[in-house]
Amino acid sequence: MPLTDYASARPWAKAIKQAVVSRAMPPWFAEGGHFSNDARLLDAAVKTIADWVDAGAPAGDASAAPAPARWTGGWRIGQPDVVIEMPHDAEIPASGTLGYQYVIAPTHFKQDTWVRLAEVRPGDRVHAHHIVVSVREPGSTDPQGEFLAGYGPGSVPEMLSEGQAKLIKAGSDLIFQLHYTTNGATARDRSRIGLILAREAPRQRVMMLAAANVRFTIPAGEPDVQIDARLRLHHDATLVSLLPHMHWRGKSFEFRAVFPDGRKEVLLMVPNYDYNWQLSYYLEKPLLLPTGTIIECTAHYDNSPNNPRNPDSTKTVHFGPQSWDEMMIGYFEVAVEPSTEMRDLLLR
């Protein structure tokens, strides 16, 4: 339902009250912490909505209504400076399990380009499960490069602060990693990414890192399996955002920083993970991660029949790309000096 005016919202009044009173909406899964994109409603706002519904959901003063939201050709970031589209359609069959597809889209950039905002738009939202767009530098043969932007369940475009940007080096290609699901009908997709460029040289370069574990076993029927991952930083960096990623059996996720002096700090606790909402959590105040800081992640999984989302509790589960497999990845973005490279963060 659109909920863009009174006529479209009124039939859903009772459901709206239930959603906000139960805190199911807006979706937000962090416990505590201070995040700039905290979507939770204040108690006063929840009460206002509940009181409105209890009063019969009356119409307000139409003359006081805000102007309708204006969308720029479907882009949530506004009109992009550059739009890069896949050079050909991806063919989607009517049935079967599909692996990831990779499509290369040249940027044709003649000079290094700094990107302030990026948004991925699937051509076929019915079949697109997720899309990850990364930057592959000239001369590289890696199947995927440095993360630029993505599209997935519940995700929103990135929120970088003023003076921050991502780098696309001259001559780089963009790699579209595409995951489609079949639904009985054939289709074609040609997805694209919109870029809003920085107007001046940024003071910080933003990059995505990950603490991941790809070697684990989740036994059949087990209600609580813990999996851990860690990543050490070899260069000073400032923490920008956190993005936990698991699949249907994931039930909780925690990020911690272990500083060089031995001090440990919880960065994010998600006690009730929901795979339907791939949310990023942006720190309200930047956090310095000195050289030698370790990012630790702990995830818990429920592979029992009591998990209503569990595709099959009789199967032992390992790391894999499909939703009925599992993943354990603690993505996090850091801001560094513009001249810093990924290898500086990960290698001595």
Plain-language structure description:
With 348 residues, the protein is mainly beta. The chain folds into three domains: 6-59, no CATH class; 82-202, Jelly Rolls; 207-346, Jelly Rolls. The protein has four helices and 18 strands. Helix 2 packs antiparallel against helix 3. The mean pLDDT is 95.
Quick summary of this structure?
This protein is mainly beta.
The class by helix and strand makeup works out as mainly beta
Strand content: 35-45%
Which residues sit in consecutive blocks of at least 5 with pLDDT less than 50? none
The global form is globular
CATH topology of the largest domain: Jelly Rolls
Number of strands: 18
The CATH class assignment of the largest domain is Mainly Beta
Tally of helical segments: 4
Order of helices and strands: HHHEEEEEEEEEEEEEEEEEEH
Q: Calculate the terminal CA-CA distance, rounded to whole Å.
A: 52 Å
What descriptors fit this protein?
4-stranded antiparallel sheet; 8-stranded mixed sheet; 3 domains; 4 helices; Jelly Rolls; 18 strands; 348 residues; mainly beta; globular; 9% helix
Give the arrangement of secondary structure elements.
Layout: H1 6-9, H2 13-21, H3 43-54, E1 82-85, E2 90-92, E3 101-106, E4 113-121, E5 128-136, E6 146-151, E7 164-168, E8 173-180, E9 187-189, E10 192-197, E11 204-212, E12 225-232, E13 237-245, E14 250-258, E15 264-270, E16 281-289, E17 294-301, E18 329-336, H4 342-346
Parallel strand pairs: 7-11
Antiparallel strand pairs: 1-10, 2-9, 3-8, 4-7, 4-10, 5-6, 5-8, 11-18, 12-17, 13-16, 13-18, 14-15, 14-17
